[in-house]
From TrEMBL:
PROSITE patterns: MFS (PS50850)
Superkingdom to which the source organism belongs: Eukaryota
Protein name: MOT14 protein
GO CC terms: membrane
Taxonomic lineage from the root: Eukaryota, Metazoa, Chordata, Craniata, Vertebrata
Topology with respect to the bilayer: Multi-pass membrane protein
Subcellular location: Membrane
Key word Transmembrane present: yes
Domain Major facilitator superfamily (MFS) profile: 37-502
Length: 515
């Protein structure tokens, strides 16, 4: 069954049966344990995204320790940030097979291992493997489940819930910047990374809090979706006939596969019940076989969902607005990451270190970022406001700030621009909401995995590119200008594609009316 039928507002002909039954809403949706999920996601953002936003401190330590070029050293931070996001589609496969809780706990262990091993680095290339790859994959395995679980547990207040949980990035950037500064000063950067590895084990606790909803609860969430969100989804996704036909195509094979799986498990259970008393070994073998059969069924179903989302008849790539969203994500994230990585160096260039030590510019971005996420989330949940329009306005503000930042050479000017960057980048909390409106809750993990993968590619190449431009020109100005222009290209894609889709839909409706 294509889960986005209610989400996108399409009529598949069987909703009357569902609507005729009175459904008691689950108290854990929009309340109860849902707020524990928000707390878990908030802590994940502090420990993962907050730590990555504070890597400018470690970047300076690595430059001094290993005496390598800025471009090469910046690859360590970029690999960590980029791989965290690039592995999104593969983490979607893990979530489909194992669930969010198991995936997050394994990721927490990997992340802590990456930080700890990095304390023994002898060169930058060693950090590529330990911090960039190992810690990066671990971060990705925790980050995506944290976002997906909030989307599953909330319906009416999705934007606010995502906004509150993702404020952990701002809190984390502020706290981790101060913490890493203190630890590097008192104990050295190697011991600082070792301590941070121990702190990262708390990600396993956050994963344990991600209690999964039952399929029945998820179904109830789809049924009680309100009319406002249906209308918003219609406005965002205009490829009605494509998604509708894909949903029908994807439904029958899934039902057939479920029937086959139930038949296999049922035969095993029947054999187990009908077994002769005293055949202990035989019963043990049957139980083991049943466990393996259940595991095989789970893996097959998870892989089938993951495969159909990317390559099947109901592929996410048939939604043209979603494809435009991916193109935007390829250019957007580097514009936010570059200031965090290179601002400490810019401050030193402009001889503003004394003012920056009193109140770091990265901390200004982090603090205002917190308020931006919450305020934009509250505004987007208002009945008369479109999340899509709020998302676009925030993007326009951010790209303007990126293009004007090189023009500011005083601390006050940089502080104002950094504050605007922090507030407008609060649109990150709206990304899961916009994604869910486009594809539905069932496909949120796979779809958001693609989006953050595109963001990861942007984060991977952005800071090294800025460092490479600096090595050539001895200035960061061109880095911000090029990043801003590429970001603007992505925004134009977001504007053009829905307009084209809307025009085509209107022309098709006119042709049908004339016929």
């Amino acid at each position: 069954m294509y889960a986005s039928r209610e989400d996108i507002g399409y009529d598949f002909g069987d909703d009357s049966k569902v609507a005729s039954k009175p459904i008691k809403p689950n108290p854990n949706i929009d309340g109860g344990w849902a707020w524990m999920i928000v707390l878990s996601s908030f802590l994940v953002h502090i420990l993962i995204m907050g730590s990555q936003m504070a890597l400018g401190i470690l970047n300076m330590e690595w430059l001094e320790e290993f005496n390598q070029s800025r471009g090469l050293t910046a690859w360590v931070s970029s690999l960590s940030m980029g791989i965290t996001l690039i592995v999104g589609p593969f983490i979607g496969l893990f979530i489909s097979m194992c669930g969010c809780r198991t995936t997050a706990i394994i990721g927490g262990i990997l992340n802590a291992l990456g930080w700890t091993l990095s304390a023994y680095a002898s060169n930058v290339h060693y950090l590529f493997l330990t911090f960039g790859v190992t810690a990066g994959i671990g971060s990705g395995m925790v980050y995506l489940p944290a976002v997906v679980m909030v989307g599953q547990y909330f319906q009416k207040r999705r934007a606010l819930a995502q906004g509150l949980s993702t404020t952990g990035t701002g809190f984390g950037a502020f706290l981790m910047t101060a913490l890493l500064k203190y630890l590097c000063t008192e104990f050295g950067w190697r011991n600082a990374m070792f301590i941070q590895g121990a702190i990262s084990l708390n990600l396993c606790v956050c994963g344990a809090l991600m209690r999964p909803l039952s399929p029945k609860d998820l179904h109830e969430k789809y049924v009680v979706r309100n009319d406002r969100e249906e209308n918003r989804a219609k406005a965002l996704s205009h490829s009605t006939e494509t998604i509708k036909s894909n949903g029908v195509l994807g439904e029958e094979p899934e039902k057939k596969e479920e029937a086959e799986n139930e038949e296999v498990l049922g035969s095993v259970q029947h054999t187990e019940i009908g077994g002769k008393p005293g055949s202990g070994r035989s019963m043990y073998g049957l139980r083991l076989f049943k466990t393996l059969s259940q595991l095989t069924v789970t893996v097959r179903k998870g892989f089938a969902l993951w495969y159909s989302s990317y390559f099947g008849a109901a592929s996410l790539f048939t939604n043209r607005v979603f494809v435009a969203f991916i193109i935007w994500a390829l250019f957007a994230y580097s514009s936010f990451v570059i200031p965090f990585i290179h601002l400490p160096e810019i401050v030193k260039q402009y001889n503003l270190s004394r003012q920056d030590n009193v109140f770091p510019l990265t901390s200004i971005i982090a603090i205002v970022h917190i308020f931006g996420k919450v305020i934009l989330g509250i505004i987007s949940d208002l009945p008369c406001i479109s999340t899509w329009n709020v998302f676009l306005m925030a993007n326009f503000t951010l790209v303007t700030c990126i293009l004007t930042l090189p023009l500011m050479q005083t601390y006050i000017g940089l502080a104002v621009v950094c504050a605007l960057i922090g507030f407008s980048s609060g649109y990150f909390s709206l990304m899961p909401v916009v994604t869910e409106d486009l594809v539905g809750t069932k496909h949120l993990a796979n779809a958001y995995g693609i989006i953050i993968c595109a963001n990861g590619i942007s984060a991977l190449f952005g800071p090294p590119f800025a460092g490479w431009i600096y090595d050539i020109t001895q200035k960061y100005d061109f880095s911000f200008y090029i990043a801003g222009l590429l970001y603007m290209v992505g925004i134009i894609f977001l504007l053009i594609q829905p307009c084209i889709q809307k025009k085509q839909s209107r022309e098709k409706s006119t042709e049908e009316a004339q016929a």
